[in-house]
Design brief:
Blueprint lengths: L6 E5 L5 H11 L9 H13 L3 E7 L2 E11 L15 E9 L8 H15 L4 E7 L3 H9 L3 E7 L10 E8 L2
Helix pairs in contact: 1-2, 3-4
Length: 172
């Protein structure tokens, strides 16, 4: 898949994991993100065995960003009435190269992930962000997500309000 500005989207492969880890630790850290090194490496390792999917964005052959996602059995308590059997997915990591931030790449990647999940039969998609992360909030809003709830989360959120906002998108 190609975006109109020369950015190419493709599915991540096991051989991409090392570069993705280096990328997220270079371009992902900010006051809003929770990136425990061991957990991030374990999550990305899931690409090799199929537990995790990822969509990579490349510009002129260089990694420009990526989003990881997986099927989930969680979030049942947030399902709308009558949707308890709907398949669910969770979008976990979304990171864009610092020099490309603000160009809409994150929103376009997230929409592409949503399209891919819809093609795979997913009915509901969930994603979380720091309550005060305006950039992530805008990306999620542009992709059609709505806020479900905000909760105290001091273990993952060391700054600001120390709260997490859960967002949801119904696909069918």
């Amino acid at each position: 898949m190609s975006l109109d500005d020369g950015v190419q989207l493709r599915t991540a492969r096991a051989g991409d994991i090392e570069a993705m880890a280096a990328f997220i630790f270079e371009h992902g850290p900010n006051p809003w993100n929770f990136l425990p090194e061991d957990e991030v490496h374990e999550h990305l390792a899931g690409i090799a065995d199929g537990r995790v999917q990822a969509l990579l964005a490349e510009e002129r052959g260089l990694l420009a960003g990526f989003i990881t996602f997986y099927f989930s059995t969680g979030f049942a308590e947030h399902q709308e009435a009558g949707r308890g059997d709907s398949s669910r997915a969770y979008v976990c990591e979304a990171v864009v190269h610092r020099e490309l931030a603000g160009r809409g790449l994150g929103s376009r990647m997230l929409r592409a992930v949503v399209e891919r999940l819809a093609e795979q039969g997913v009915g509901d998609v969930y994603i979380e962000r720091h309550e005060e992360n305006a950039g992530s909030a805008g990306m999620m809003r542009k992709a059609g997500f709505r806020e479900v709830r905000t909760f105290d989360d001091p273990q993952r959120r060391a700054t600001g309000s120390r709260r997490t906002t859960l967002c949801h998108l119904r696909l069918d």
